[in-house]
Design brief:
alpha+beta; Dna Ligase, domain 1; D-amino Acid Aminotransferase, Chain A, domain 1; five-stranded antiparallel sheet; four-stranded antiparallel sheet; 22% strand; binds adenosine-5'-diphosphate
Length: 265
């Protein structure tokens, strides 16, 4: 069996021979944030003829925050209140701000907290409008700002099974837990409720592999899913030293799943 981790190697194998991608037993893609449009297009094509992990559908779904929130809601999974509106619909933006008090504008396909903008009052909305009106994207995705303790749970799920959980804490003065936005990772034991929520979110999105971000909504008094990541990070060597020892378990579960999916009847 051949596992191809990178579509760049689509045309030739190590020995220089052409690899017929459409004859692979399975295509495993784990190329976080580095896929070119070309690679993604081929991933979509391959998905029609060979099993892909994640499937192209769930990969594409989790790459889009609005589509993910929509699917989670349809499956009865609690997420932050959200809405889309047209770029030019200033009135609707004002209505949302009134309804929610504080809200966040999120680019639907961002990562690492980049581009997320908190809108706290009329003045911050007015300041943002000239920027919003110039966006090439017509669709604005907005979420109610959830009151929480500025920590989250990242729960890794593979093949419907719990792999690991760790916490992330926003840096002082920030509300974003992302490590790339200055957040720090800490050891965190999940409750059964959190694990169950993560498993249901991964299933709703059809993801074989998922990293589910969960925060505790202080107003509602319950946890909610912020997003489902289709290519969640492995623990770095520094994090492993801290005691995050889930990499082996995760790899084992992935390999077992690949073996199962490629078993010929
Ligand atoms: N609705 C929200 N209310 C409060 N904080 C939020 C909300 N959405 C996101 N955040 C904070 O911003 C961070 C990044 O948001 P997220 O939707 O996960 O986007 P990204 O793909 O950039 O990680 C989250 O980890 C969380 O700390
Ligand atoms: Mg996130």
């Amino acid at each position: 069996m051949e596992y191809l981790r990178d579509l760049e190697s689509i045309c030739t194998s190590d020995s220089g021979e052409a690899v017929k991608m459409e004859e692979l037993d399975l295509f495993f893609s784990y190329n976080a944030r580095q896929q070119t449009k070309y690679q993604t297009y081929l991933y979509q094509t391959l998905n029609n003829v060979v099993p892909c992990m994640n499937s192209y559908e769930s990969f594409a779904l989790t790459e889009d925050k609005f589509h993910t929130s929509f699917v989670l809601r349809r499956h009865g999974i609690l997420s932050a209140d959200f809405q889309v509106c047209h770029r030019d619909d200033t009135q609707e933006l004002q209505n949302l701000l009134q309804r929610w008090g504080k809200m966040i504008y999120k680019p639907v396909s961002g990562w690492g907290g980049a581009g997320l903008t908190k809108i706290e009052n009329e003045e911050s909305l007015d300041m943002l409008l000239p920027f919003i009106n110039k966006l090439s994207d017509r669709v604005l995705y907005l979420e109610k700002f959830v009151t929480y303790d500025n920590t989250d749970c990242r729960v890794d799920i593979v093949d419907g099974q719990f792999v690991a959980c760790y916490g992330r804490k926003a840096k002082k003065g920030s509300w974003k837990t992302n490590v790339t936005s200055g957040g720090s990772v800490f050891l965190r034991e999940p409750s059964d409720e959190i694990v169950d929520l993560a498993i249901r979110a991964a299933k709703a999105c059809g993801t074989d592999i998922a990293g589910v971000d969960i925060i505790y909504d202080e107003e509602r008094g319950e946890p909610l899913v912020l997003e489902v990541n289709g290519i969640p990070a492995f623990a770095t060597p520094e994090q492993e030293k801290m005691g995050l020892n889930f990499n082996d378990k995760k790899i084992d579960l992935i390999v077992e799943m690949i073996d199962r999916k490629t078993q010929k009847a």
